[in-house]
Amino acid sequence: MIKFFFKLIKWPAIILVLLGLAAWFYPEKFLTVDSGPVAADVLIVIGGGGAQHERAQRAAQLFQLHAAPRVIITGAGDDQINRRLLLAAGVPARAIELESRSATTRENAQFTGAILRREKIQSAILVTSWYHARRVEKTFAHFVPTVRFYSRPAYFGFDRADWNKNGLHQRMRLEFLKLPGYWIRYGVNPF
């Protein structure tokens, strides 16, 4: 009976280990989720990121490309900085809304989700860093299943040569801990 059990799980275990190694050595392939050119009701800029404020810059670019007519900035602390950056990039103040209470990706989804439900938003483009995109998309889809989410991340530091000098190596590796953590704690399936 034990031999049968080991035979049964041998190949799935080997495949799982190989997939895990591939994700570890090629994190940009696993962590990045990009929906490509899409249009939606609103852009959602996730707080955090680096000192370059690449998330706000990416949102301003998408706004100028008419990807969405409005922007919601989510995340306590970064919200005012991101608002100023969006204004400086030509996004009108009337098109910007703030969610200023959240401190985690889960709270970003929950608190922004309340706004989306209240305003009957049907679709949203999530703007975050490329290494954060998978967890953001899966978390928002989990906590706000009535909205169609797209991902259009910022690609600052995407080149492998930039990972160490921009401190992204550690952030990427933390995502590999946070993804299963969100799955275990909140039921957010990373696949």
Mind sketching the topology for me?
Elements: H1 2-25, H2 27-31, E1 42-46, H3 54-64, E2 71-74, H4 79-88, E3 96-99, H5 105-118, E4 123-127, H6 133-143, E5 148-151, H7 168-186
Parallel strand pairs: 1-2, 1-4, 2-3, 4-5
Helix pairs in contact: 3-4, 5-6
Task: Give an overview in words.
The chain has 191 residues and is α/β, with parallel strands linked by helices. Helix content is 49%, strand content 12%. It contains seven helices and five strands, in the order ααβαβαβαβαβα. It has a five-stranded parallel sheet, sandwiched between helices. α6 links the parallel β4 and β5. The protein is globular, with a radius of gyration of 18 Å. It starts with a helix and ends in a 5-residue tail after the last helix.
Shape: globular
Regions with little confidence, pLDDT below 50 for 5+ residues: none
Distance between the termini: 32 Å
Number of helices: 7
Fraction of residues in H or I helices: 40-55%
What would you call the structural class?
alpha/beta
- The strands making up the biggest β-sheet line up spatially as 3-2-1-4-5
Mean pLDDT: 89
**Sheet having the most strands:** 5 strands, parallel
Order of helices and strands: HHEHEHEHEHEH
Give the DSSP E fraction (strand runs of 2 or more residues): 5-15%
Total E-strand runs? 5
Instruction: Return Rg in Å.
Output: 18 Å
